[in-house]
Amino acid sequence: MKKALATTAIALGAVAVATGAAHAETLTVEGNYATAAACDADGSGGSFTAGGVELRGEDGWKYTCDQGNDGLWYMTIFR
Q1: CB of 62 within 8 A of CB of 79?
Q2: What does pTM read for this prediction?
Q3: What's the CA gap between 7 and 45, in Å, rounded?
Q4: CA nearest to 47, candidates 62, 67, 28
Q5: What is the pLDDT of residues 35-50, one digit of tens each?
Q6: Is the pLDDT of residue 61 over 60?
Q7: How far is CA 45 from CA 28, 41, 55, 67, in A?
């Protein structure tokens, strides 16, 4: 009985962790950049616009610049 309860508790914990990660907010900024430096210059300003809404670094938003398969750089905003 204890073994069954322990297995159930572990399974529920794993589901809770996966659910928490699924609720993270991530947005890809429209447009692209020719260089990583250009993407970083826009991102380091601390204020982003996505979907007509201003997102600020003070509100916990961060960014990454990732190179796409086409060789261009794309900014992703997350928190």
Answers
A1: yes
A2: 0.62
A3: 47
A4: 62
A5: 999 999 988 887 777 7
A6: yes
A7: 16, 7, 11, 20
With a cut of 50, say whether residue 79 has pLDDT above it. Answer: yes
The answer to whether the beta carbons of residues 65 and 38 sit under 8 Å apart is: no
Question: What pLDDT is attached to residue 75?
Answer: 92
- Distance CA(37)–CA(26), nearest Å, equals 21
List the one residue out of 57, 61, 59, 56 whose CA is nearest residue 76: 61
Q: How far apart are CA 69 and CA 2, in angstroms?
A: 51
Kindly tell me if the per-residue pLDDT of 16 is higher than 60: no
The alpha carbon of residue 33 and the mean position of all alpha carbons in its chain are separated, in whole angstroms, by 18
Cβ distance 26 to 46 under 8 Å?
A: no
Give the distance between the most distant pair of CA atoms in the chain. Answer: 60
Q: Return the residue matching tokens 């991102």.
A: 43
